[in-house]
Amino acid sequence: MPPSGTDTPFSTTAEPQYDNFYTPQNSEFYSKFQYMNLESEQHRIRLLRIQPIGPGEDNSSRIKCEVVDNQSLAAIRGQFTTISYCAGDPKKTERILVNGLKFNAFSNLGHALRQARHFWAEKYDTRELLLWADQICINQSNATERSQQVNFMGDIYGSAMQVLVCLSVEGNRTGGIQWLQQFSDQFRDYVQIESNNKHMDEFEAGLYHGLNFFRQHYNDKTFHRGWDTFLTTILKSPWWPRAWIRQEYLCSPDAYLLAADESMHWKPAAEALYRYYWLQINLGKAANTS
User: Fold this and answer.
1) Mean of the pLDDT values across residues 143-156?
2) pLDDT higher than threshold 50 for residue 11
3) Residue 120 has pLDDT above 60, yes or no
4) CA dihedral in degrees (170, 227, 239, 57; nearest 10)?
């Protein structure tokens, strides 16, 4: 299948069965690991059981997981998590362990899996993480299976408990989501106070307190570093323009945005992003008419 982040149609030809253009080379893994055949007439998938961080390890430690094969999608509805990421260059890889065997994952997938593992430990503690990730859960050496799984990817994401959207890539600084959360909380409080006092309508309060928010933090270097990180890591993330988000995000019952070991639920994040864009547009208009 085309990995997350590409719009290139998948190949349906029988030969070659493995196309290195789409996913990193894993011929050694496929020669040692035997995927079970998934019955074509049934919606059956594989999951990954992600091992938690062990003693002496940290968030940068290698991903270790096991394949939970041949699962009925109907039977496991709401019991697993999906991940959404931008795959990037298939030549940029990261070695992870799948059933004890070395597997060349997209570098961005390795990063996304570590983000998911970190998020899960903070939110769910020792609860088992069962996760669906396209590159590993679909047998990429089997063109027929790739085609069949792609045909019901919307059902896979719609049947999950949630989707974890990884906006960052390896090397991004922390602070982007933290800045968005700070902006959301403070701006909402400013507008609410003024609206309750009836001194301004909502539009006027939004402009006034939006401008005041940025003025108050003008000399705060930490604020500006967070703002820069927000712009580069969140707004300019390669995840946004991907066509696949229509299945991976919009079909999912719930979603969290992850970036550089930080997370935010999609509802307050979407609200904050709307406020941010609204401010940028209307403050710009106000400046041009003054």
Assistant:
1) 92
2) no
3) yes
4) 30
For 201-242, the pLDDT digits (tens) are 777 777 877 888 888 888 999 999 999 999 999 999 999 998
Mean pLDDT of the chain, nearest integer: 87
Q: Which amino acid is at 170?
A: E
Cα dist. 10→126, 132, 143, 177, 289 in Å?
37, 19, 9, 34, 51
Residue bearing tokens 């050694």:
28
Q: Are the CB atoms for 103 and 96 separated by under 8 Å?
A: yes
Assess contact for 124 and 52: CB atoms under 8 A: no
Structure token pair of residue 121:
């430990």
The C-alpha atoms of residue 234 and residue 53 are separated, in whole angstroms, by 26
Amino acid (1-letter code) at residue 189: D
Bridge partners of residue 255, in order along the sequence: 163
Per DSSP bridges, beta strands 162-166 and 129-132 are unpaired
Look-up: residue for tokens 């990995």? Answer: 3
3-state secondary structure of 147: helix
Q: Which tokens sit at 251? A: 């079909």
With contact defined as beta carbons under 8 Å apart, do 90 and 24 qualify?
Answer: yes
Rounded-to-integer distance, Cα 101 and Cα 117, Å: 19
What gap in Å lies between CA 268 and CA 87, rounded to an integer?
A: 26
Start-to-end C-alpha separation, the chain: 53
- Can you give the pLDDT at residue 283? 80
Cα(26)–Cα(42) distance, rounded to whole angstroms? 27
For residue 259, what are its two tokens?
């970036």
How far apart CA 271 and CA 278 sit, in angstroms, is 10
Q: Summarize pLDDT for 169-193 with one digit per residue, the tens.
A: 999 999 999 999 998 888 777 666 6
Q: What is the pTM of this model?
A: 0.87
